[in-house]
């Protein structure tokens, strides 16, 4: 029942499948790009940018951001989330996902494969060579033809966000952990054209300061490329593990609901070479786990040819009441779907969330 609802509420207007089965990378690029250019020319309109809006006296001024309060809230929520993940890992020390995550985190710490923030445990690691991997990503055909790119807000993908804005593309990025908002849209047209401002716009504070908040009703947004962070990824299957909070999956599900993406939208991740693994059991992945099509490391680009199905929406029976209580936009979406369908959506089992964790000041 729930899956049918999720499918029905996801956009099916872009139904051409993504062709990832060829071992020939050139054929993959050609086939994908032919389809992608058709989408761009025939069916897609990203948000139109009104260059004269700022000069319109009737346009309300954006409320001035209290930068200190914003940063304090971000650090507090980050501490709470990392505490929750640590408690979850401690309560299930032999769970296969946490075993793989801990192995990668321990190895990166032991070999100094990561920059600050450290320790890397319970984070998407800000790996050494992240900028090099980002440049490799920017050279991909799927990146170059994309007009709107959704990028996660984590540190190792900061250069991807910078290159997205520098290339004149639209950048869609979520508010951290979706607790303070939903998605924000940024474009170089919104910004003073200098490296300082573009760099600032690539941070959580800069997104809040320069971005335009996006709501669930912005159904004319079409995302051409999704970039997500990873703790571990299997280059042979495209199976991916994040840091354990599930926000990449929630963001993906909400974009499906909005009709902004479909199965053909490529998913790319950037990681250190040491984060490539071969022991993620595909048969144990959950229905909401998001696979990746392309992996960029500092030394290589890998086309995974993944056959893992992509999520079709939000799986409400996996979300606990406590998780819903933390994320306002999910509560609003749930109420909306229930009102539209006249049916009550399921809720996942309850979970005990740990108290706020302490963290050291970030370098």
TrEMBL record:
Superkingdom, natural source: Eukaryota
Coiled coil ranges: none
Signal peptide as annotated in the record: none
GO cellular component: cytoplasm
Region (Disordered): 338-363
PANTHER family with a match to the protein in the record: 5-FORMYLTETRAHYDROFOLATE CYCLO-LIGASE-RELATED, METHENYLTETRAHYDROFOLATE SYNTHASE DOMAIN-CONTAINING PROTEIN
Protein name, UniProt field: 5-formyltetrahydrofolate cyclo-ligase
Organism: Crotalaria pallida (Smooth rattlebox)
């Amino acid at each position: 029942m729930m899956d049918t609802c999720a499918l029905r509420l996801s956009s099916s207007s872009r139904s051409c499948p993504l062709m990832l089965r060829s071992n020939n990378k050139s054929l993959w690029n050609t086939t994908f790009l032919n389809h992608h250019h058709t989408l761009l020319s025939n069916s897609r309109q990203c948000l139109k940018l009104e260059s004269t809006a700022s000069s319109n006296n009737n346009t309300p001024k954006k409320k001035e951001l209290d930068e200190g309060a914003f940063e304090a809230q971000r650090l507090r929520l980050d501490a709470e989330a990392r505490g929750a993940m640590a408690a979850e890992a401690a309560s299930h020390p032999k769970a296969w996902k946490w075993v793989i995550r801990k192995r990668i985190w321990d190895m990166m710490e032991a070999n100094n494969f990561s920059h600050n923030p450290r320790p890397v445990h319970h984070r998407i690691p800000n790996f050494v060579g992240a900028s090099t991997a980002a440049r490799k990503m920017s050279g991909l055909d799927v990146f170059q033809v994309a007009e709107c790119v959704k990028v996660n807000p984590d540190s190792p993908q900061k250069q991807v966000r910078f290159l997205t804005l520098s290339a004149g593309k639209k950048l869609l990025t979520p508010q951290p952990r979706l607790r303070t908002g939903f998605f924000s849209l940024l474009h170089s047209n919104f910004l003073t054209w200098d490296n300082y401002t573009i760099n600032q716009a690539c941070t959580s504070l800069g997104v809040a300061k320069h971005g335009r908040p996006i709501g669930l009703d912005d159904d004319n947004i079409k995302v051409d490329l999704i970039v997500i962070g990873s703790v571990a990824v299997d280059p042979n299957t495209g199976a991916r593990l994040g840091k354990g909070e599930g926000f990449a999956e929630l963001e993906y599900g909400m974009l499906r609901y909005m009709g902004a993406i479909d199965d053909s939208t490529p998913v790319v991740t950037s990681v250190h070479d040491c984060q490539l693994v071969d022991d993620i059991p595909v048969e144990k992945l959950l229905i909401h786990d998001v696979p990746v099509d392309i992996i960029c490391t500092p030394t290589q680009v890998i086309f995974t040819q993944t056959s893992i199905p992509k999520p079709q929406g939000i799986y409400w029976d996996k979300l606990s009441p406590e998780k819903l209580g933390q994320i306002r936009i999910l509560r609003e979406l749930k109420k909306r779907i229930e009102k539209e369908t006249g049916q009550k959506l399921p809720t996942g089992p309850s979970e005990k969330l740990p108290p706020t964790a302490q963290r050291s000041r970030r370098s």
